[in-house]
Amino acid sequence: MEKLHHLIKAEQLTPSIVAELLTDAENFNQSFKAGVRNFENLKGVTVCSLFYEESTRTRFSFERAALLLGANVISTENAAKFSSAAKGESLEHTIKVISGAAQNHLGYADIIVLRHPENDAAERAARVSWVPIINAGSGSNEHPTQALLDAYTFQKLLGRLDHFTISFIGDLKFSRVVSSEAVLLSQCPGVKMFFVAPQGLEIRPELKSYLSQKGGEFEEASDIKAVVQDSDICYVVRVQKNRIKDSELLLTYQRNKDNFAVTDEVYKMSEQKGTFFCHPMPVDEEEQEIRQEIENLPRVKMLEQAGYGVPVRMAILAKVWQNQKI
Fold first, then answer.
1. Any idea of the CA torsion for 151, 139, 222, 236, to the nearest 10 degrees?
2. Which of 40, 46, 75, 153 is most buried, judging by how many CB atoms fall within 10 Å of its CB?
3. Residue 87 designated active-site
4. What is the residue range of 76's domain?
């Protein structure tokens, strides 16, 4: 088994690592169903949940996962404001202190789960950290643990992680989830991807280049209705209003947002195929990229998807700690 010390980017999630982590996640999931709530994989370990950006599902699922594994958790939900970053401290200094880079036995944490608005933050942290860094989202660039969570979801829904068609719908330029997900799936045999985005928010050129080099099969489109009947999975993401500086991009999207939303019409179109609809959440309450009238229908799986965050992140935490001890 390949070692996973830090988890920084989706390229690290090779087929063998993915297979092992998804097996571990399924074992944790089945244990939950059997009523098991206490594990000792991280007994005596301290996990630092260091979030410079807002989060609900990622942060809470990591903290829940750590606690279930027997770890202690220290955390901040807004490190940009409530840590020494507000006083001008660099990320590198913060990581060195928390990880105990000067005196390893006096570090504050044994694993650091980091979310940060800068694209290269996790890589910078890993270069100076004495303990494992897990990237819980860096800028618009990477979200590898969400990609793994989604892979687990697809495997649960389809019974496989190969030979299926997935459509990514929405803001594909600024979505770190789509970027990591596409990289992970490019390693899976027979996966075809459709990329459906508003004008100006299309998949980034460097990701297209990466997929082309990997021999991945993909096409671009401009309307969800053009791809839904051919899709096993429709993966919808919100428009990243917090990252978009160009107001014209938002106006263009809003004028045409029905082309990128799961509506009652789209759901009915997908009945013969049996398409599943996923979303990493949050759903934008104003834009309603998954409309309220269909969000509780059987093939809309975003709430199940969110729940899988706990066993998947348990598997990740347990694995990096196991590798740390080897």
1. 40
2. 153
3. yes
4. 10-143+307-325
- Residue-level pLDDT at 248: 82
pLDDT at 219: 96
Question: Does residue 143 have an active-site annotation?
Answer: yes
Domain-embedded: residue 230: yes
pTM score: 0.95
Shared-domain flag, residues 34 and 105: yes
Give pLDDT tens digits for 223-254.
Answer: 999 999 999 999 999 998 888 888 888 888 88
Q: Active site residue: 9, 116, 143, 319, which one?
A: 143
Task: Note whether 182 and 60 are same-domain residues.
Answer: no
CA dist., res. 268 & res. 262, Å (int)? 10
CATH code of the domain covering residue 317: 3.40.50.1370
User: Which residues, at least 6 apart from 197, have a Cβ–Cβ distance to it below 8 Å?
Assistant: 169, 170, 171, 172, 173, 203, 220, 222, 260
- Residues 160, 271 within the same domain: yes
Residues of the chain with pLDDT under 70: 1, 79, 82, 325-326
